[in-house]
Design brief:
The chain has 294 residues and is α/β, with parallel strands linked by helices. The chain has helices spanning 9-21, 25-30, 47-55, 74-84, 99-107, 129-137, 158-175, 191-196, 206-216, 241-256, 259-263, 269-280, and strands at 34-40, 60-68, 88-93, 114-117, 143-148, 187-190, 222-226.
Length: 294
C-alpha cells in the first residue's frame, strides 16, 4: 500500500492535526466571547510578543493585563500596546504582590462569559484557545484545563515534571478526582464561576486554590491536550520546589476548611446544583428535539 496514500498512517496523522487546530463552526460561536487574564512580573522580553498572539485570536474579546509591580520595562510596553488596541485593559500594582493577587484583580474586572489565564511568557500557545474553549461553548463544562503532555513537549527539568505529578496525585487523593495536570497555567472557566470561587491565593498557591475550590463546589474539570514549551530558570521561570511544598500545604488546608470559610456567607448551593444539572444534560452526542434512532 502506498505510504502516502489517502488511508496511510502518515496522512491520517496529518488530518488529525489539521482537525485539532482547524477553525470550524464552533469557532464562530466563540468569537469575542473570551476574556484573557495576563498577570505579568518583569516580562519585558516576551510580553509584547505574547500580546500580539493573544490579540490575533478571534475568540478574544478583551485582554486584562496586570503588571504586578515590575521593575523592568513591562509597564511601559503594556501602556504602549494598550494605546493601539482597545481590547487591552491594563492595571498596575505599585509593589509586587504575587501571581495570585494579580489574577484576583483580573477576575474582578471580567466582562465576558468565559475567562482564561495566559502567562506572560511563551510557555503556552494561544493557538490552543479553540480547543480549550470548545467544551464551555458547547455548555458541557464550566471548567477546562489544558494538559501539558510532557512526554511529547519540551520540559526543562525531570524534577519539575515529577513535582507536578506529586502535586497532581495529592489533588486526586484529597478530592477524589482524576486530573492529569493540576498545576497547568491554562485554566479557562465560565466567568460567573471565577467570581464565585472567592479566591485567596496570593502567589503561586493560586493554582491549588483555584482547583480545590472548583472541586469543593462539586464541578468536574474537563481536560484537553495542549502544546507546552517550558523555559528554564535562566530564561526567567519563577516556580521553585518551595512552591510545590506550598501547593501541598494549600491543598490539605482547603480540603479541611469549611464551605462557609472558603466561600463566605454568599455561597449559593442551589445555584451550583442547578448549574451542574445543566452541564450534565449537555452531552455532545445528544441533540435536543431530534430523533436518536439510527
Amino acid at each position: 500500500m502506498d505510504s502516502k496514500g489517502p488511508s496511510s498512517p502518515r496522512t491520517r496523522t496529518r488530518q488529525l492535526r489539521q482537525e485539532r487546530y482547524s477553525v470550524g463552526p464552533m469557532s464562530g460561536q466563540s468569537r469575542g466571547q473570551l476574556s484573557v487574564m495576563i498577570p505579568a512580573y518583569n516580562e519585558e522580553r516576551t510580553i509584547e510578543l505574547i500580546l500580539d498572539h493573544v490579540l490575533a485570536r478571534p475568540e478574544v474579546g478583551e485582554v486584562i493585563a496586570i503588571d504586578d509591580g515590575s521593575t523592568d520595562g513591562t509597564w511601559p510596553i503594556l501602556s504602549r500596546v494598550a494605546n493601539r488596541h482597545k481590547r487591552l485593559r491594563t492595571f498596575r500594582h505599585e509593589v509586587n504582590q504575587g501571581k495570585g493577587a494579580a489574577l484576583r484583580r483580573a477576575v474582578s474586572e471580567l466582562r465576558l462569559p468565559f475567562a482564561l489565564v495566559q502567562d506572560a511568557d511563551l510557555e503556552y500557545d494561544p493557538r490552543d484557545y479553540p480547543l480549550i474553549v470548545e467544551p464551555l461553548i458547547e455548555g458541557r463544562a464550566d471548567a477546562v484545563y489544558g494538559v501539558r503532555g510532557f512526554a511529547g513537549q519540551t520540559s526543562h527539568s525531570f524534577w519539575f515534571v515529577m513535582g507536578n505529578k506529586v502535586v497532581t496525585f495529592a489533588t486526586n487523593v484529597l478530592f477524589d478526582c482524576y486530573l492529569s495536570d493540576m498545576e497547568t497555567g491554562y485554566k479557562v472557566l465560565r466567568s460567573e464561576l471565577w467570581k464565585r470561587l472567592n479566591l485567596s491565593g496570593m502567589r503561586f498557591d493560586i493554582e491549588p486554590d483555584i482547583t480545590a475550590r472548583i472541586l469543593r463546589l462539586g464541578y468536574r474539570i474537563h481536560e484537553v491536550p495542549i502544546r507546552y514549551y517550558a523555559r528554564s530558570h535562566e530564561e526567567g521561570k519563577k516556580l521553585t520546589w518551595h512552591d510545590g511544598v506550598e501547593a501541598l500545604r494549600t491543598l490539605v488546608k482547603l480540603r479541611m476548611t469549611s464551605d462557609r470559610t472558603l466561600f463566605g456567607p454568599m455561597l449559593d448551593h442551589e445555584y451550583h446544583k442547578r448549574r451542574q444539572l445543566e452541564l450534565a444534560s449537555h452531552h455532545p452526542l445528544i441533540r435536543p428535539n431530534k430523533s436518536h434512532t439510527p
